[in-house]
Design goal:
alpha/beta, Globin-like, Transcription Regulator spoIIAA, 2 domains, five-stranded mixed sheet, 10 helices, about 65% helix, STAS_dom, STAS_dom_sf, Bact_StressResp_Reg, phosphoprotein, Anti-sigma-factor antagonist
């Protein structure tokens, strides 16, 4: 069904942008210059698509360009901190601005109803797309933050020639154990260290699963030709290990990092003395 009213929106593009910008400001759904440039491009492409197809073929090449741009805008807004509601409000405000102009252009209630019906269908479909793109954008942010936190929370420190230490903070799970193991083994290779210290002072509790992860890490370290020392064994952790019947036989354990470092010096036949 042809609707010349929708086609005529292109002639009022600047006015539409002005009204839309005002609505976005009132709703607090904009962040300034970046948004303004995105909105101009989106408005231009969408009005071109409506002018060519009148909204009847949302699978056309013109609408594909609009959809691609909208996905990029939604993902960008998600990364800039907009909420799902604000992201949806972006398109709802556009529909409201376009409806205002349509009301001024068409006095025939039937034609006006048809135009708003088509416009609503187009915008509603795009709103669904924005939610999907928004979720993808947030997932990318969360994934990046998880990677950054993992890197920060599993630093391998070279404390002496031949000795590296890895302080573990927080709970160990299977995925994090894999990161710990990879970082530690890579650092052993890079530095040629023969002793690795795992400090678990920052681990809130040790259960059978955490203990198994620690044992796997120790075993992997030994396969690389290095000895592993576990430090930070607090009294409550020692009691838990005994209570659970966890076998740490053959693994060197120390109460503190300082004690573990002294043991490492002894293994390397090194002596640290105070200068007179």
């Amino acid at each position: 069904m042809q609707n010349n009213v929708l086609s005529s929106l292109k002639e009022h593009e600047n006015k539409l942008l002005t009204i839309w910008s005002q609505l976005l400001l009132e709703n607090g759904s904009t962040d300034g210059i970046t948004e303004e440039e995105e909105s101009k491009e989106f408005t231009s492409l969408l009005l071109d698509a409506l002018r060519i197809s009148n909204g009847n073929n949302q699978e056309s090449e013109e609408f594909e360009k609009v959809h691609d741009l909208l996905i990029g805008i939604s993902s960008s807004r998600a990364k800039r901190g907009f909420s799902p509601r604000e992201n949806a409000q972006y398109l709802i405000s556009f529909k409201e601005a376009a409806s205002q102009i349509l009301s001024e252009l068409e006095r025939d209630p039937v034609k006006l109803y048809d135009a708003n019906l088509i416009l609503g269908s187009v915008i509603d479909n795009m709103t669904i797309m924005t939610f999907e793109a928004y979720m993808k954008g947030r997932e990318d942010v969360i994934s990046r933050q998880i990677d950054e936190i993992s890197e920060i929370s599993t630093p391998v420190i070279r404390v002496w020639d031949g000795v590296v230490a890895l302080p573990i903070i927080g709970t160990l799970d299977s995925s994090r154990t894999q990161v710990v193991m990879e970082n530690l083994l890579q650092q052993i290779v890079d530095t040629g260290s023969s002793i690795a210290i795992l400090d678990i002072s920052g681990v809130p509790a040790v259960d059978s699963l955490v203990a198994q992860h620690l044992i796997k890490t120790v075993s992997a370290t030994r396969l690389m030709g290095a000895e592993c020392i576990i430090s930070g064994i607090r009294p409550e952790i020692a009691q838990t290990v005994v209570h659970l019947g966890i076998d740490l036989t053959g693994i060197i354990t120390k109460a503190s990092l300082a004690s573990a470092l002294q043991t490492a010096f002894d293994m390397l036949q090194l002596t640290v003395v105070k200068r007179k």
